[in-house]
């Protein structure tokens, strides 16, 4: 009987190790998913403490430059848009350029939470945009934090520079 016990022990140990590895793998996978939801776009960064605002009673507060630049050789749109920490809503942006009388959505950002800013977003359209200066707009979509549903949107006139 002692040889029978010795044969069962390694298989029980192997089963326990495999089970533990599966549980650990599932835990790590879940952590990676949660982390990717927190920082979905590498160009979205936390606002520096010197740029941070004190908390206030406002629902929405925005800081932005009135332009965006499409660098066609890099397929990159650079902009300067901050959702200050005093804001109470997450948002995302559509960057739109009016080219030959047609509004073209150049890009849409990931959600920008209060206390974060965005400096660039990838240009992924297959459409070639001629170099020049165009009228455009940021379409800002605001979200309710509890249920993540879009609650309102707003348009901000900007200039779009294509290089």
Verbal overview:
This protein has 163 residues and is an alpha+beta fold. The protein folds into two domains: 1-38; 44-162, Immunoglobulin-like. 23% of the residues lie in helices and 41% in strands. It is built from one helix and nine strands. The protein has one helix at residues 2-38; strands spanning 44-46, 63-64, 67-71, 76-83, 90-99, 102-108, 116-122, 132-143, 150-162. Strands 1, 2, 3, 4, 5, 6, 7, 8 and 9 form a nine-stranded mixed sheet that branches. The longest helix has 37 residues, at 2-38. It starts with a helix and ends with a strand. 22% of the residues are buried. Mean pLDDT is 81; it is low at 34-42.
Summarize the model shown.
The chain is an alpha+beta fold. The chain contains 1 helix and 9 strands; from the N terminus they run αβββββββββ. Strands 1, 2, 3, 4, 5, 6, 7, 8 and 9 form a 9-stranded mixed beta sheet that branches.
Helix/strand class:
alpha+beta
CATH architecture of the largest domain: Sandwich
Number of helices: 1
Major sheet attributes = 9 strands, mixed
Number of strands: 9
The whole-number mean of residue pLDDT values reads 81
How many domain units?
2
Through-space gap between termini: 81 Å
Beta content:
35-45%
- CATH superfamily of the largest domain, called what? Immunoglobulins
CATH class of the largest domain: Mainly Beta
Low-confidence runs: 34-42
Q: How is the CATH topology of the largest domain named?
A: Immunoglobulin-like
H-E string? HEEEEEEEEE
Helix content: 10-25%
How large, in whole angstroms, is the Cα Rg? 24 Å
